[in-house]
Amino acid sequence: SFLIPANNHKTPHRYPCSTIVLSADHQYLALGSDGTISVWTINGELKSTKSISSNAGISQTLTAKERLEKGKDAQTRSQPKWITDCQIIPEFNKVVISTGDRELQFWDQTYCLSTSREVKPNDLPCTQISSLDSAPIKLNYGIPSPDELLLVYGDTEGCINILIFFAAREIFRLLTNVERRKGIPTISFDRFLDSYKCDYVRWKVHREWI
């Protein structure tokens, strides 16, 4: 039920939130477009704030489409990364995040929801798939079987994408061993499809963003 009148709270976010999701243990996770995470209790009390974005992205003063264009310009690389969406996947203890740099990042859920910030720059609890066909805009997921994960996302080219992990736990474990880029184990999308037990389906729906 809603509390009426609603209470107003100041937030730590300097830029608009890309999404707000509810965890299985009844905490709200708000993710800013610059990668700032805030965790709130069910009563609206702020528990923690942290950044889960490396400094490798796009100016937040631009519109969404301008960010994608500017993302091709190396001079913008000192600005925060543009985060487009996220989903909590408690079945695998992951928070999956999509970025305007055509990436999918898989963060440790415990780290994202905890109050601890202590982590070494080269030991970030995250793995990353880079160089997707296009920038994911909206994420969702499904669990067809205990060790199978379906990631579904709409992108900037008007396409629906389904990325299927047939052995998700093994894949997440193996991803931690790939080459690190800016402290995060990173693998290109093409190499990911060739190297792991997975499948990929993509089809065009229309010309606009999804």
UniProtKB/TrEMBL annotation:
Keywords: Repeat. It comes from the Eukaryota. The keyword Transmembrane helix does not apply. This is Uncharacterized protein. It comes from Adineta steineri.
